[in-house]
Structures are given as C-alpha cells and as structure tokens.
Amino acid sequence: MNRLSGKVAVITGAARGQGRSHAIHMADEGADIIALDICADIPSNEYPLATQADLDETAKLVEKSGRRVVTAAVDVRDRPTLKKVLDDAVAELGGLHVVVANAGICPQGNHIPYRGFIDAFDVDFVGVVNTIHVGLEHLTSGGSVIVTGSIAGLVEQKDLATGGGPQGPGGAGYGMAKKMVRDYTKALALTMAPHNIRINTIHPTNVNTDMLHNLPMYKVFRPDLPDPTREDAELVFPLLQAMPIPYVETEDISHAVVYLASDESRYVTGQQLFVDAGASLKLGV
C-alpha cells in the first residue's frame, strides 16, 4: 500500500475497462486521479463507448479509496480542450506525476469505410501523443508516462486490411497506431531521460473488456459464422496466447501500471512490456 502516495495521475479512457481498473488500483496505492473519457460514441466504431454514468462510477470507486478525483468528458483528439481540462485539473490537485495514455478504440469489419482507419489512428496514436505532450508540461524529475500498446502492433500491416481480411480499415488504423506507439515511446524515452522522466509502454493481448466483447470483434475471431456469440469466440480466443487462456484481466495490466508509476521503477524507461500470456512469442517476437 501507499506505493503512489503523494502522486497525481491522469488517465485517459478512465470511464471503464482498463482505464477504470488503473484508476482504482492507483488510488488504492495512494494516488489522486484525473479521470478523462470521451463519454460519447464515435460513428465508425460500432460497439458503444463509455458514458458519463460510467465515468461517474469510476469517480465513486476512486473516492472509496479515500483519494481525490477530478473527472472530465474530453476527446483526446482535441488537444486544445484536452490541455485546458488537464491544466485546470492539475491546478486543482496541485501537480502531476504520472500520465497514463490509455484511451483507445478498435473499429472492426470490412464494411466500415476508410473513416474507420482515420478514427482509430487519431484516437490510438494522435490521442496518445496529445495526452503525453500536454502532460509533459506539468511533469518534473521523477515523472512517469505509461502508454497502452497492443500485440496488434506486431501483426504485419498488410495482413490487417488487405485480401478481404475481417479487420478492415479500422483494424488497419488500430494496428498502425500501435506500431507507431512503440517507436514513438522509445524515441521520447531517450529525449526525456536527461530530465529523469520515464516513458514506458505496456502491450496487452486480449483483455476482458468491452473492446473485446462485442459482435464486430467476435466476427474477427469467427469469420466462419454470420453472428457469432461470445461463447463462439471464446472457443478460439486461446489460440492467440501461448498460455491456455482466452484473455487477461484488467488487473493484470493495472499491476504493471502501478509498478511503472511508482518509484520502484525509477530506472526503468523505454521498455516495451508485453503482458500477453505469451502471445508475442507465438507471433515470433
């Protein structure tokens, strides 16, 4: 306990899923939380995104730990608004020590127009860059930046959208964003190391969240079925991992986030940490 005592952390995509889990685990370790989420749907992304009610629930769960929390509905693609929201929250809480760039979408399906590529890339890469760059203005020596990547960044780009594959333009945009996150965070880690600010990326496999559990994603895993169920998809989910599991849980990622946010990892930077049950091994990495 208290591994993050005295720290303030901003988390994007905090209304549910991994982001909510990170907020709770960090608060349990003593951090005050700035919880941000779009709280609206994006048309090319066919599964529903988080709501204001979801974000409010995250705030209540953080407060149960006795920590302060500031929430805001903001789109990470909108840097000017994101900057104002973060500046105001940092002023209210008295500082910023950790940035968790977690917000993401994953539109799937060949029926989605090219806008799916644009939206996925803009949220999953441009949104990460926006979050980090406005956050760096507040970080000082000892600060930590943690980015949510994905093993999807290991898949050949040509395999994501060409040849009638089930991912479509949105999957291609998602994969490209996750590829670029790897190089971006390595370059930024070198740049910020003289300032004693650390930059690390966590790459999960499938995670037990709404991004995984929706019909468009089930169709990616079961293209042989017109309307696959969760049960249908879960028959093949384990094929992705080397370990015989269908997916990891949000807390599996949150434990790594807490470590990278804490002073225990004070000399850990530029790392690409795969919390993936061996999925990257099966992909040859």
TrEMBL record:
Superkingdom, natural source: Bacteria
Record keywords: NAD, Oxidoreductase
UniProt protein name: 3-ketoacyl-ACP reductase
Gene Ontology molecular function, alphabetical: oxidoreductase activity, acting on the CH-OH group of donors, NAD or NADP as acceptor
InterPro entries documented for this protein: NAD(P)-bd_dom_sf (IPR036291), SDR_fam (IPR002347), SDR_subfam_1 (IPR023985)
Family, per entry: Belongs to the short-chain dehydrogenases/reductases (SDR) family.
Transmembrane regions listed in the UniProt entry: none
SUPFAM superfamilies named among the record's database cross-references: NAD(P)-binding Rossmann-fold domains
